[in-house]
Design brief:
Blueprint (H helix, E strand, L loop, with lengths): L8 E10 L4 E4 L6 E4 L7 H7 L7 E6 L13 E5 L13 E6 L2 E10 L3 E5 L9 E11 L19
Antiparallel strand pairs: 1-2, 1-3, 1-9, 4-9, 5-8, 6-7, 7-8
Length: 159
């Protein structure tokens, strides 16, 4: 059997859960996730976990925050004046999109005060330990899927 190696395109089904068992993402009901091993664009621990697996191989593994989306960073929480919203109403928990020199970024509204609101720009899974159950369903030397090119197992918001 062919073992997954750096540069291969891997197709796999996955379920990602938090420590409390909450499912945060899954390929269930969708096609398999496809990504190029070592190609970037996917969390490092996930990439490393598929190395040397074979087609139909299954694995469950846990990733600490530093192997996934990193620790939650306080410097990515910002306050903004309420008057910058104009007539737009927002709510705690709402995801807002902002423009930056690096392109669009999303942040979650943490709090609202009469004169300001606070937004968290950390990835929603930052600071969390993640568990994945995966099954490799294909290994090729060329991509098999055309699409948004999103290779994250948990967030296609950039598509």
């Amino acid at each position: 059997m062919t073992k997954v190696k750096n540069g291969d395109f891997v197709q796999l089904h996955y379920t990602g859960t938090l420590e409390d068992g909450t499912v945060f993402d899954s390929s269930d009901g969708r096609g398999p996730l496809e990504f190029q091993v070592g190609g970037g664009g996917i969390i490092a621990g996930f990439n490393d976990a598929v190395m040397d697996m074979e087609v139909n191989g299954e694995k469950t593994f846990t990733l600490a925050p530093e192997q996934a989306y990193g620790e939650k960073r306080e410097d990515l929480t910002r306050e903004f004046p309420m008057d910058m919203l104009g007539d737009h109403a927002i709510e705690v928990g709402q995801v807002l999109r902002f423009s930056s020199p690096q392109g669009p970024v999303s942040g979650t509204v943490l709090s609202l005060d009469p004169d300001k609101f606070t937004v968290d720009f950390n990835h929603p899974l930052a600071g969390k330990t993640l568990e994945f159950s995966i099954k490799v369903v294909g290994v090729t030397d060329k991509p098999t899927q055309m699409g948004c090119s999103c290779t994250s197992p948990s967030d296609c918001s950039s598509c």
